[in-house]
Amino acid sequence: MPRISTRGKNVPLSPFRKLIPIANAAKAKGRKVYHLNIGQPDIPTPPQAIKALQEADIEILAYSPAVGITSYRERLVEYYQRFDIQTDISNIIVTTGASEAIQLLCWACFDHEDEMIVPEPFYANYNGFAHNADVVIQPITCDIDSGFALPKIADFERMITPRTKAIFITNPNNPTGCFYSEEVLRQLGALVKEYDLYLVVDEVYREFCYDGQEFFSVLNIEGLEDNVIVVDSVSKRYSACGARIGAVVTRNQELLTTLDRYAKLRLSPPGLGQILAEAMIETDGDYIKEVKVEYDNRRMVVYERLKKMKGVKNYKPGGAFYCFAEFPIQDSDDFCKWLLTDFEHKNSTVMLSPGSGFYATAGLGQNQVRIAYVLNSDDLHAAMDCLEIALARYVKEVEQKENVLSI
Amino acid sequence: MPRISTRGKNVPLSPFRKLIPIANAAKAKGRKVYHLNIGQPDIPTPPQAIKALQEADIEILAYSPAVGITSYRERLVEYYQRFDIQTDISNIIVTTGASEAIQLLCWACFDHEDEMIVPEPFYANYNGFAHNADVVIQPITCDIDSGFALPKIADFERMITPRTKAIFITNPNNPTGCFYSEEVLRQLGALVKEYDLYLVVDEVYREFCYDGQEFFSVLNIEGLEDNVIVVDSVSKRYSACGARIGAVVTRNQELLTTLDRYAKLRLSPPGLGQILAEAMIETDGDYIKEVKVEYDNRRMVVYERLKKMKGVKNYKPGGAFYCFAEFPIQDSDDFCKWLLTDFEHKNSTVMLSPGSGFYATAGLGQNQVRIAYVLNSDDLHAAMDCLEIALARYVKEVEQKENVLSI
Question: Which class does domain A6-44+287-406 fall in?
Answer without folding.
Answer: alpha beta
